Amino acid sequence: MICEILSVGTELLMGQIANTDAQYISSRLSEFGISVYRQVTVGDNPQRVKEALNTALSRSDLVITTGGLGPTEDDLTKEMVAEYFGLPMELHQPSLDALTERIRRYHPGRPVTENNLKQAYFPKGAVIMKNSCGTAPGCIVERDGKAVAVLPGPPREMRAMFEGELTAYLEKISDVRIHSRFLKIFGVGESNVESILQDLFHLENPTLALYCGTNEVQARMSVQLPKGEDPGRVFDPVEREIRRRLGDAVYAVGRGETIESTVFRLLRDRKKTVVFAESCTGGLLASMLIENAGASDVLRESYVTYGEETKVRILGVRQRTVDTVGVVSTECAAEMAEGARRISGADYAVSVTGVAGPDGGTPENPVGTVYVGVADERGTCVKRFCFLGDRDRSWVRNLAAAAAFNMLRLRILGREIEGAQECAKG
Amino acid sequence: MICEILSVGTELLMGQIANTDAQYISSRLSEFGISVYRQVTVGDNPQRVKEALNTALSRSDLVITTGGLGPTEDDLTKEMVAEYFGLPMELHQPSLDALTERIRRYHPGRPVTENNLKQAYFPKGAVIMKNSCGTAPGCIVERDGKAVAVLPGPPREMRAMFEGELTAYLEKISDVRIHSRFLKIFGVGESNVESILQDLFHLENPTLALYCGTNEVQARMSVQLPKGEDPGRVFDPVEREIRRRLGDAVYAVGRGETIESTVFRLLRDRKKTVVFAESCTGGLLASMLIENAGASDVLRESYVTYGEETKVRILGVRQRTVDTVGVVSTECAAEMAEGARRISGADYAVSVTGVAGPDGGTPENPVGTVYVGVADERGTCVKRFCFLGDRDRSWVRNLAAAAAFNMLRLRILGREIEGAQECAKG
């Protein structure tokens, strides 16, 4: 089945917003085995909306539109669909009732205008889709072997409608499902992962593809199956093989998983706590961990020691360390972690000290140099990272934070951390 | 002048990435008074690329393509442009030299393949645009009153090329400029701003439009002027009028300004320091401030006191406060700020304590309730915020952080903070 996505909205053509609707819809359609051949965007212009809709319907089985469902005269997606199929527009009373109720609740005293009324009219025979987050319902029109699904433009409204009634419709009309499973990989570069898994890229059931993020790689397995079949038997053996080859570098399964959510779960499941001593990341580690609901089980307190003197005063870093090797050093990272663990009583302490830039680099420690320390009951280890590249402060800080979480993950799992130095307790 | 943007890339049609290139290009073109009527995306399919290019050129003066410049057989945007205009492909020696040098530097030992060679071929007579961030140069082909600009797909490469040689070209072919000035507004809701500025929306020089973000409003003034004319005389009087009406709610001028960068500059210019005592924001405030280069001038240390007991132990909140009114209270916020200021010696201390959810809400303090305290030499004030709405933890934390920065901003400026309670020093 061939689908075309038609986005209507002058704000898209002005570049005021990115067309995330088209991405979302394309991604979801691929899961139903529906191919998107074209995404087309036009403004709120009757002539161009009409022409784009005609062209799209002439070459596709299914057209999904977003936008142009508002109350103003400009908004005419539904009207153009009705015109294409030669259908009259009809009032849908339940939509008008819902709209009236919504206006009464959120804008008491405001009258229901002629324009609002427009939002309750649909091509005759259309299946109406409720809008749980806004005033504009959508609809599906099927005729002459073609179908058009009309969705609102605001992403929250569009997604809710897609996941509800439109998904039910797609489940009905599509016989296949394309399933995907994502393995999240940290600490091995894309080209290394590629050569380690090389022969697996020739598989057909499932297919395997890599996606490279800023600081991690995702391996995606995909398989097309008849509706109702479980993809586990296809994915499981390949996942086992990938894990056998990549070992601990595979940190989670699932597209939405992150290195910090993985660490959060590891700590919570083991009833362990952590404290951070952050210099250049400056609260980023704590903030990322606390993003997880239930974070109070694993983090009680955390320290940002950005100034040199604060590392000594708050964390007990030795003045001699600061004076001799400086704060961007293995020694300082170790003492920061040990100090934070001591004052907090946490099971694990993670320290980060480095040069995020743009200034502050030296020949020994150029911008992008970061030391991460992890202290626990077994002792303290420190690893030096170099995030070089002509990038900004934010890039260095984010890479440092992810690397720190990964070191903590490996330490919790009791693994050797490659390239890390074990430090004698200070 | 009418432009069409043609994006080539199967990854866009699969929904793997959003088409941020089209947004970026549209937004920049609008500044040259060039109208984008359509954005079209097709996959790496010769037939559909060709057909889309033909259609685009038949109805536009300028077509800008992105993607399809890679070394593989799939990549054929340039070839299709050559075919459209009936031009042969020719080797561009400087591009080949640059490519060879790039491969030598980044992939020593790897040969320059037949496929790489392809990236140095262009339609005869094309103006070549260097790629400072990747291997694929772009080009501009002008013929028969039409022009096609061919850009790479990866956003960093595309943007660098756009800002360099393509911008120079657009400056040459366009006689007008559309200038914009953004006023950033905090603490007044969109509909309030709308009614306060109501009559100004009828202006034509400049036009005025509002954009609503998660927690702030932007007012954009725009004006079209002949090349070389200064928009200041058009913008200045309207900016003055907006500031007269909205007062301190206007916190900055400039699209890229943020509430935290504004606070950072205020502190640095006054040579003042700040410390945070964060509970539910958990390091977010510190992290946002430290994102600014030079942050060590204004922040030395900062505290995340997430657990109840840590507020007492680290910040000196009174046990009695915790036991009687609890940690989500005016008293606790005040004592947290005062404690952080006392132990750090900073000029300003900002505390945040609240319920980010999804659990922990009570009838008095439902999820989304946040107390922000600011302490300075004049005393301490606390304001209670309610970020209600069916949203997630991240949403509450981000709104709380922005609100805290805004309170600090007003306090630094010596303004009254509406709805805040002045607390006696603990």
What does this protein structure show overall?
- The structure is a homodimer of 426-residue chains.
- In chain A, a hairpin with a 4-residue loop joins strand 10 and strand 11.
- The longest helix of chain A has 20 residues.
- With 426 residues, chain A is α/β, with parallel strands linked by helices.
- Helix content of chain A is 39%, strand content 25%.
- The N and C termini of chain A lie far apart (66 Å).
- Chain A has 3 domains: 172 residues, Molybdenum Cofactor Biosythetic Enzyme, Chain A; 78 residues, Alpha-Beta Plaits (2-Layer Sandwich); 165 residues, CinA-like (Maf protein, Alpha-Beta Complex).
- Chain A has 15 helices and 18 strands.
- In chain A, helix 2 runs parallel beside helix 7 and helix 10 packs parallel to helix 15.
- Chain A has a 6-stranded mixed sheet with strand order 2-1-3-8-7-6, sandwiched between helices. In chain A, strands 14-13-15-16-17-18 form a 6-stranded mixed sheet, sandwiched between helices. In chain A, strands 10-11-9-12 form a 4-stranded antiparallel sheet, with helices on one face.
